[in-house]
Amino acid sequence: MKKFITLIITAVLLVSCTDYDSQFDQLDAKIVELAAANDSLEAEIAAMAALNATVSAQTTATLEGFQKAVEGIIEQLTALGTTSQDIYLNLLGIMEQISALAEQVASNSACASDIREAIAAIEDALNKLNENVLHHSGGGAHHSGGGSHAHHSGGGSHHSGGGSHHSGGGSLDLFPSEPTDNGDDALNLTVAVPCGTTMVRLSGPWWGWDPSGGPVGVDNGDGTFTFTFDPAPTENMEYLYTLDGVSYENLVDNAQNAECTDRVDGGRFNTDYFSYANRIWILDSGDQAETYDSCSIDTID
Predict the structure, then answer these.
(1) Rounded to whole angstroms, how far apart are CA atoms 112 and 180?
(2) Alpha-carbon span 177 to 297, nearest angstrom
(3) pTM of the prediction?
(4) pLDDT per residue over 107-149, tens digit each?
């Protein structure tokens, strides 16, 4: 009887060991698959930046940050020696989201609002997944993603024209908020525009307020356009943006709704709150990022 029981116990242990080895092999295979997918994602982001040479550096940095966050989670799972089917599938899904956004940016088919929404969704998914992994591991660091923006202010001379209707305030948060300049002695104005915009110009007294007479911005391929003045202007510059050379943006209603108070107080805006409302770049204030038809402003690298 003892020999029979011993044989049974031995058989059970052998089966248990076989099951454990099988589960361990499956875990190894999943982590290897995740690591390979992440390597592929890293290569895709690099290819995106190479394909679309004008893509916003901030957008590229954000996607690279997401990819590194995924890499960090994979490293945590490897250290833990365990994962669940849910975590595995969620991580694959996040990598698919990042890949899809990289593809949109590479093909220049995404606009600023699309990128903002996609980044927010990826950021939220990463944070939730990281919290799940942290819950099981008791360690690690949260991925914080995107960035906030700092508002500054405005004032200047005058323009009497109307234009397209205000579409809502607020920054698209695609830009860093540190009030610094990149030190290249040039002025770079970057503006986030509505989806489908094909051309953006500057207009102002320097160009006789001609909506089709000012400089044309360079399409960054991510829903933003950049104007570069090299060297930078030697005096304050009053201006508005025009889309597709048709009409000025209309910031009068923004001013009436008290959305431009900071800019007015800081000398970066000029308005009578009735017939005109114009942007002003202040001499030596550095590069800046703005949103079309909005008073939001960031000074940027």
Answers:
(1) 22
(2) 9
(3) 0.53
(4) 766 677 777 788 888 888 888 887 777 665 544 444 444 433 3
DSSP output for 209-252: T-TTTSPBPEE-SSSEEEEEESSPPSS-EEEEEEETTTEEB--H
Can you say how many angstroms the Cα of residue 88 is from the centroid of all Cα atoms in its chain? 25
Strand order in the sheet with 187-192: 218-219, 224-229, 187-192, 288-291, 297-299
Please, where in the chain does CATH 1.20.120 lie?
A: 2-137
Helix axes 112-137, 57-80, angle to 10 degrees: 20
Q: Backbone phi, then psi, for 138, in 5-degree steps?
A: 75, 15
What pLDDT band is residue 196 in, cutting at 50, 70 and 90?
Answer: confident
Confirm or reject CATH 1.20.120 for domain 2-137, answering yes or no: yes
Tokens representing 161?
């024209």
Residue intervals in the chain for CATH 2.60.40.10: 187-299
| From 59-73, 98-112, 281-295, the region with the lowest mean pLDDT | 98-112
Q: Which amino acid is at 77?
A: L
Instruction: Give strand ranges (E) for the chain.
Output: 187-192, 200-203, 218-219, 224-229, 237-243, 247-248, 269-271, 277-281, 288-291, 297-299
Q: Is the distance from CB of 285 to CB of 253 less than 8 angstroms?
A: no
Phi-psi region of 192 (alpha: psi -120 to 50; beta: other; left: phi over 0): beta
Q: Is the peptide bond before 231 cis (omega within 30 degrees of 0)?
A: yes
Q: Which residues, including other chains, have CB under 8 Å from residue 173's CB and lie 6 or more apart?
A: 116, 146, 147, 148, 149
In this structure, the strands spanning 269-271 and 277-281 are antiparallel
Q: Is the domain defined by 187-299 classed in CATH 2.40.30.10? A: no
Pairwise pLDDT comparison (151 vs 204), residue with the higher score:
204
3-state secondary structure of 96: helix
Helix (H, G, I), strand (E, B) or coil at 256: helix
Contacts of 57 (CB under 8 A, 6+ apart): none
